[in-house]
Structures are given as structure tokens and as C-alpha cells.
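Dock uracil; give full complex structure.
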Amino acid sequence: MTQHLTIVDHPLVQHKLTLMRDETTSTKSFRQLLREISLLLAYEVTRDLPVTMQTTKTPIEEMEAPILEGRKLALISILRAGNGLLDGILELIPAARVGFVGLYRDEKTLQPVQYYFKVPENLEDRMVIAVDPMLATGNSSAAAIDLLKNAGAKNIRFLCLLAAPEGVARMKEAHPDVPIITAALDERLNDQGYIVPGLGDAGDRMFGTK
Ligand code: URA
């Protein structure tokens, strides 16, 4: 993956995203759409996974057929909204290892503080896909990637549903080596740090907490 930012403009992704943005979409539908869209985004983010040839016998004859190479992927959910993307991707890649990073924003310093960190072993040998639906300021995403790099990860990509230009810029400055894959790049952040036009609070909408 050579580009820093990839926007997945597939019509199915864009259609589902529009339904998710709609304020009248129910929690149930929002969750279902997120699951469906995450399958499509997973397809794109894993496009260049290395494959190796394996001798396979079909009912007709033996052939050399491609199969995924090496260690499994590590999927890292940035809590809590990351879990919505994670579920769908796991359906497509059920053997992937899974980790979780929990960060909250300190009210005084406004800096991200870690409250949970549990990731698979041997991150240095895996493709690591960090997932969080909303790339807003980019502060917590950049901090999560710092933690993953400290744990040994070298080949990291960041998968989100929506990105703000501010978040993309912050990530590019902090982690130019981490490609971002998103369904859309929106206009800006508002004063409360929400993506505009966005879809509101992704965690609240997927878990029905508001
Ligand atoms: N997190 C969200 O859930 N929504 C935004 O718009 C920004 C950050």
C-alpha cells in the first residue's frame, strides 16, 4: 500500500455510509450497516496481503494455488467504537489475532491516557490493522499507533469509516508510514471535535447509549 490515504469509493460502501449518516437510522440498522461496510473495507485493506503457492489436489488434478502466507493478521480495536468495525472484519478473517487499545482523554491536559492495552504476541511479524470508525483530531489514533509501535508492530495500517482532514494531517505528521483506509474524507471538525457533516457519535449510535 503506497498511498497515505485511500478512500474506498465503491458504490456499495458509499450507499451504506449514506444510510449510516442519516439521523433517523435506528441503532439496529446502524450496527447492521457497519458490519456490512466493514466486510467491504476489510477487502480493500487486505488487498496486498502476501500469498504463497500451495500444491492442492482438486477432484480433477493437482495444481499450485495461492494461499495466505505467513503469520496471521493482528486486528487491533481502538475502544470502544473500534469493536463495531472489528466484528465484521472477523467474519471475513476469522483466524486473525485480536488486540484492544483503550484510551481516554484527560479533561485537564486533553492528552490521551491509556487505560487498557492487550495485544497478540509477535506483532513485529504480523500485518497489524488498527480499527476505529472515526478519525477526528487524530490524537488518540496517533497515540494508539505509538503504543503498537512500542509493542513491536512495524507493518501497520489504520482503517476507519470517516476521516476529518485534521485527523489525516495529524496521522501523517506522527506516522507517515501508516496508510489510512477510509470510506470518506469529510469537511472538517466542529468546536466539539465532531466530524462535519459526519454521522454523530459512532459509539453512541452503534451501542444506543444516547
Ligand atoms: N468520534 C465520533 O464518534 N464522532 C465524531 O464525529 C468524532 C469523533
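Observed: Residues 81, 134, 136, 193-195, 198, 201-203 surround uracil (CB under 6 Å).
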